[in-house]
Structures are given as C-alpha cells and as structure tokens.
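Quick one - first record:
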Amino acid sequence: MFLGIIIPDRLKNSIFIEAYADYIRRIGFYCDIRIFDFKSKYTKDLEKTMAFQKDKILDISNDYTKITVEAKGRMMNSLSFSKWMEKMMLYKMEIYFILGGAYGLPKGITEIADDNISLSELTFSHEIALIVLLEQIYRSFTILYNHPYNK
C-alpha cells in the first residue's frame, strides 16, 4: 500500500520538517509513504495560483483514491479513523490525502475526492495539519497492529 500526502506549499520550518521525518520513518514500517509539497507558480494572482495548485494535485494523484482533509469533512475519533484506514487499505492500493494551502483547497477538488475527512473544526496551518494527520495515520497503524503506542 502507498500513502501520499499532497500539500500545495513548501515545507520550510526545520522544527516541523524534523517531526515529519520522524513520523514518515515510523509509518514507513507499515506502508510506503511520501509527502508531495510544491511551491505555487503564481503568488500574486489568487485565481491562477489556485488553478495551478489544482492541476498539480490532479497530476500527482492521477486516477488514484483522493481524500481531502478539510474542516467540513467527516469527523472521526482515532478508533474510527483506524477502522476507516483498515477498510481503505483492503480496497485501495494508492491513497492520496490532500491538504489545502494558505487559501484552502482549490475549487473542484472536494467534489472529485473519494472522501472528505476532518482533523478538527479548528483551522490549522498546513504544517500543523500535516503533523496531526501523520500522527493519526501512525496511531491508526498501531491500533490495527495492536502495538502499544496508542495506549
């Protein structure tokens, strides 16, 4: 199984990068995982920026399973998220989680996603959202494989 996480902003802060690397290493024990971050081509024209981001997201995720992570998505606790992950792993070989950048998700991405989930009703920066998502993915694997982390 392969998990991809798409973020339409570069990861810059070394404190966050260190945390991401730790979770990528931990999750890598259970499946292949990769973070796709990219710098938006246009920064002054919001419409062009969002169109560029949408094209990049679609290029990366291609015809695979797309899961948007957004405040309006379906709320789950850690146990239901792990059961959802187990179900996804049974039927999907490649899953791409899509996080919004500074201006949210590009128009049309939510509508073509296979599922929409929420980490919280709170708004997080993409760096914090990524850490929370990675932690929950790791937690879900430890629950599914009965490893002690989740206690």
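second record:
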Amino acid sequence: MRVHVKYFGVLRQKIGKREEYVEKDVETVDDLMQVLRDTYGLDTGFLVTVNRKTVSSTELLSERDEVAVFPPVVGG
C-alpha cells in the first residue's frame, strides 16, 4: 500500500523531511506508526490525522490516504 505521510513540528527536524510516500504492507494507523518507529526511532504519543480527520490507532488505511503526524503537545 502507498500512503502519503506528512511530518510536522520537531518531527520534520528529527526525520529530515517534510513528507514522503511510504510503501509498506500496513492496514491500520498503528501498523504505519510501527513502521515509522522502526525506521526513525520515534517515540509514541503522536497525534495522527488521516485525510485531515483525527483518527484512532485502529483506523484502517486505504491506498493514497494522506496521513499527517504531529508531535505530542506539551504545555500548561
């Protein structure tokens, strides 16, 4: 499956790119996030949107979905 992934905030700096196409055998957001954790050594706790809608980690992905990954928000 081919999924368009966009990175925001400090993730752009850590990964070294704004976006990429990930072509892996993934079915859910959690599967994709595991690929990104394995590839880039990312932590957990990211906000993920699919086609500009906030989704859970069990959300099923479809070919050509646009996935945006945002770092955890901290503050008070």
